[in-house]
Design brief:
four-stranded antiparallel sheet, 11 strands, homodimer, globular, alpha/beta, seven-stranded mixed sheet, 12% strand
């Protein structure tokens, strides 16, 4: 493709995206397609000769678009948001155009330094503990997802408790790790990947608000030590996936200090709320944590993938993940004066993800980001009030932030039928969970384009169906 | 940012990228900056109010650009290539604009189905074993990197040999894994992550061409079994990082069949050569492998990240990595008729990476891709001839494909000084390795924009310095 053709097609794609996002409400939010509907339209064999870009874009319209569930629709209230935004898209575009690798400082100094710098900005924006700044013994890094960040934290914890013996000799089946019954599936996945094993993952009881009970944690730790187990790692969740429950980080952190356990805090979705001083209570006690992560690719308008992962002791992380073959040796690394982010993550290669986060923070400014977060939380709280006032629906728990969990008073069958009606209508998209063994609709309010009228329309539709 | 502003800034970024790539040779290939040069120019605090996009793009020019090592320069011959191309950039742009999540089939059917379909195309393009097609018991998936693919393969192997006991109870320190002394650092990293441990990684001897010696593998396996170890996994490399050595996959595969070991084949850079029938000998015996990966983001003009990972038995992979919490349950998953790619990888979330690969294959066509690969290999072979004819340099080994390893006849000091001169000149960029304990310059020829004149200019510069 010539540069001229790229300019022309590039403009077409930019316009395509603007048209798509401006008119996204025309599409049913959930794709109505059945399995194999997309594949059935694709040629069985790859083309022998090159095809025109116009044809590809036509196929995107005709084959791909109907097969999408539109995560950027303002009527998407499922899962957690996975936001993109115009400045973020432009950052990602530039990253693809530059095509640099940031595995080492030396392979593109700006790629590493901008990332370190913007993550220090994030510490300031969220008022995170100063121990997470690169100017301390800690620092931040961009990971693809909270799953990967949690795995890295668990690995560092594993090595710390075994005095690096695991790295040398392999796990031995005695390590145990702890999180709440309401935790994200990624903690269990990390425990299996790290060779710790599902049987050595303890799911601690939760209270009436679905938050971890510190007393139960303490009790389980005691029982495990008595049985000869070696506790290594605790993951507290700030904003669980099912109900947005906030684990009591301070009390859990104090136990971890006493017991010398690595505390990781997973705030994948909810961490963004700490942009606003009035919501920073969710991080109370965070200075007791060894590591922390949240995802700007969820609620901070930065397209996937962008998880910010911070550690208090970067040496512990690097010791766990560093391997330096001859072909990566260089004078900057040997000087000890630079960060090589390959030692902070599972993969070796990495793209220049800091650009899009830099663009988002600069475009919105701290003030602009706070405004959107406040609007989403306020809409969720108002939505919760509507549910409280309704005689057809009931709230499962008071929503701490921007996720509302509700059910129809007639029970699971009716609740499930309502959710299905809404998703089948294409007018909005919702997902479910189970809390106290009951089927629950989750209303997750945090889309880049979600405003009052979309939340009101959802409530009208729910009410009409009830 | 309004849609109109996005259209305007989007055009500016498209033009910026076209200008950058068309004039990329104006920049020194290696960034001349020193540690902290970039950070020193960035404001200490994040902005309270939003800034203009024009200002951001100015900062990219003034602060970021001088801090880059230009991987897309035709004069970049370091490491392995990390290619981008115009159609790939447009695919990545569209992915960022759509902002859909492909963790489940249900979260965007087209995202999953296009990926499965294009990976079946790749099986055909590279003439890979039919067992890797989705229509068999196997299938393909896009991972971020070969590091992650190898880790997934090792985890599936770990579970197979322990009858899933590791997932339940944790690794026990008896498993052993095997690869060559010339292997990539990611195999060691995977062994430590999986809790197998460095001490249980066996680095098998290599022959004069730096390829694994099957007899040594057999001997080591025998000794390990005699010592009560449980061999689990072998990784063969097709195109090692240091010298592009091709391990004898067929002989290694036969041993793995006899010994019932999982064979993973890592062809991260070199796999792309199999686009051309005349180079498919590198994959001889691949039908004996349990898994295989190569990176279109290296030599197939698809921007990072895009690793194609194939398995013969997808059930083994899914069994290892699947966790299904209530909030991800859906009727499509329960029907068993769809692929949920979250069960094929470490993270949960995933972006729509198949779009860019689809665009690249369709834009170039099989014929166009083969043409570029043939050109790079032919240039490397010619370059090797120039080295053979030179009385100042010597070849370390006959280059199998597109990587040439050479040294100055006066030894390490002189070779190292020449490499430094070239990188400091900014006219080209090279990296080194050690082979047989000697310092060696690697000339990796595979850039999207690298043509005869760039390779000739590099040789002139090397000759002048020698």
């Amino acid at each position: 493709m010539s540069a001229e053709a790229f300019r022309q097609h590039g403009r077409a794609v930019i316009d395509w995206i603007a048209d798509y996002l401006e008119h996204i409400e025309q599409h049913p939010v959930q794709s109505p397609l059945k399995p194999n509907d997309v594949r059935a339209q694709l040629p069985a064999h790859p083309p022998e000769r090159g095809e025109s870009f116009e044809q590809m874009l036509r196929d995107v319209n005709e084959i791909i678009l109907p097969g999408l569930t539109h995560w950027q629709s303002p009527n998407f209230f499922g899962y957690f948001p996975a936001n993109t935004s115009y400045p973020s898209i432009l950052g990602e575009l530039l990253t693809a155009g530059l095509g640099v690798q940031g595995m080492l400082w030396a392979t593109s100094p700006a790629c590493t330094e901008l990332e370190t710098h913007v993550l220090d900005w994030v510490v300031e924006l969220l008022d995170l503990p100063r121990e997470f700044r690169s100017t301390s013994a800690g620092g931040g890094v961009i990971q693809d997802t909270a799953s990967s960040a949690t795995l890295c934290a668990m690995l560092a914890a594993r090595e710390r408790v075994t005095g690096n013996a695991t790295n040398e000799r392999g796990a031995n089946g005695t390590l145990t790790v702890y999180t709440s019954q309401q935790t994200h599936s990624s903690i269990e996945k990390a425990a299996t990947i790290a060779g710790i094993g599902r049987a050595n993952l303890r799911l601690i009881d939760v209270d009436d608000h679905f938050a971890m009970k510190p007393a139960s944690l303490r009790q389980t730790l005691r029982a495990d030590r008595a049985a000869g187990k070696v506790p290594a790692f605790v993951c507290a969740t700030v904003g669980t996936t099912s109900s947005n429950a906030i684990d009591p980080v301070r009390e859990i952190g104090e136990i971890c200090r006493e017991e010398q356990l690595w505390l990781h805090v997973d705030a994948a979705m909810s961490g963004t709320a700490a942009l606003c001083p009035e919501f920073r209570h969710i991080h109370d006690g965070l200075e007791l944590a060894d590591s922390y992560c949240f995802n700007p690719h969820k609620w901070m308008f930065t397209n996937f993938d962008c998880d910010c992962f911070f550690v208090r002791d970067r040496a512990a992380l690097v010791r766990t993940l560093s391997i330096l073959p001859e072909y990566l040796r260089n004078t900057a690394t040997e000087s000890g004066n630079v960060i090589d982010y390959r030692d902070w993550q599972i993969p070796l290669g990495r793209r220049f993800r800091a650009l899009k986060l830099w663009f988002v923070i600069r475009h919105y400014g701290a003030e602009g980001l706070r405004g959107l977060v406040r609007e989403h939380i306020s809409l969720a709280q108002e939505f919760a009030d509507w549910v409280r006032e309704s005689d057809r629906f009931e709230l499962i728990t008071d929503p701490p932030l921007n996720l509302v969990c509700l059910r129809h008073i007639e029970g699971d069958g009716r609740t499930q039928a309502i959710l299905k009606s809404i998703n089948d209508s294409g007018r909005a998209f919702l997902t479910h969970t189970k809390l106290n063994d009951r089927y629950v609709i989750r209303v997750s309010i945090g889309g880049t384009r979600t405003r009052r009228q979309h939340v009101e329309a959802l409530w009208r539709q729910l009410r009409d169906l009830a």
